[in-house]
Amino acid sequence: MTATTSSFSQPSPARHLDDRRITLEQLRTFVTIAAGLDFQLASATLMRSQSAITQSLQKLEEILCCRLIDRRRGQVADLTGDGRRLLPMAEEILSRLSAAIDSFRQPELQGRVRLGVPDDFPLGNIATAVRRCMEINPALRVEVISALSSQVCEHYRQGEIDIIIYKKVAAAIGTNTSAATHVRPAPNTSNDTVLHRQPLGWIASQTIAPNLNGDIPLITFPDGCAYRAAAIAAIEQSGHSYFNAYRSASYHNIRRAISAGLGVGILPHNAIGSDHIILNDNDMLPPLPDIELVLTYDRSHTLFHQFVSQLVRNGDFAIAHAA
């Protein structure tokens, strides 16, 4: 199953790369192996024999004249440098193909859709996902509105936005969830779909320790932010006190204030900076709940439902809500 290292040295002058030899099956095999780093799991996922999976990968490596997967004793150890380089491009190709096929499974979308997202939602990925929806539906017009989760929900209640993605506390500490978050859910919560759930953390600078001997110095977003409301609810339930050391609607400024040691911030674990640390084990700081990313819209509306179906199947959208 393992080819010799010399087989994947630099391409000879007489040999040139030919993209016509690469198949979608090979790319899909590589992406599936990379996702789980396991040949057996890829075999089960693709419903193909393990030998067929191995041969497909080896053929792709042969065509590209490089090793994509680092194998050790017949098992996947990791992606090689070339494998990590190819992976996002292969995922892009498969994602675009999937979107193209999906567009033929339902009528072309026409009309206007107003989509509301939180300020801290990754703009690049959602913008790419929306753009692709409009590319395969030329008569579709999508308007994206970004605001705090509470504002996004209020726009939805007022009928000013058709589809919203917002953040709310998954499990408030000893109190009513909606009251603790200050983010009232959409009118019909049966239309809610939880896209992602992630833990919150008390975040501080690695090099400048915040003063936690008295009131907790909070670095937070403005009122209406689910992170802020969750932190305040946790502090009040624990009997501690706090003051607003720094408040900003800018994610970038929040991170910089934490790095400068102005106080303690509240962020999901996957959003902290490289110069930050998590203080969840500090006795002064109470436990924090998880945060849910929720999608809400009127499922009886055909255009909205079809648009959401296309959006959530888009690879870039999946990256965005997991980030």
Report what the structure shows:
This protein has 323 residues and is of the alpha/beta class. 40% of the residues lie in helices and 22% in strands. The protein contains 11 helices and 11 strands. It has helices at 24-36, 39-46, 50-64, 81-103, 123-136, 149-157, 177-181, 226-238, 251-259, 302-312, 315-322, and strands at 69-72, 75-79, 111-118, 140-147, 163-169, 193-205, 216-220, 242-247, 264-268, 276-278, 290-297. The strands form 2 sheets. Strands 3, 4, 5, 6, 7, 8, 9, 10 and 11 form a 9-stranded mixed sheet that branches. It has a two-stranded antiparallel sheet with strand order 1-2. Strand 7, helix 8 and strand 8 (242-247) form a beta-alpha-beta unit. Helix 1 packs across helix 2 (39-46) and helix 5 (123-136) packs antiparallel against helix 11 (315-322). The model is unreliable at 1-7, 9-14 and 172-183 (pLDDT under 50).
Keywords:
323 residues, alpha/beta, nine-stranded mixed beta sheet, two-stranded antiparallel sheet, 11 helices, 40% helix, 22% strand, globular, disordered N terminus
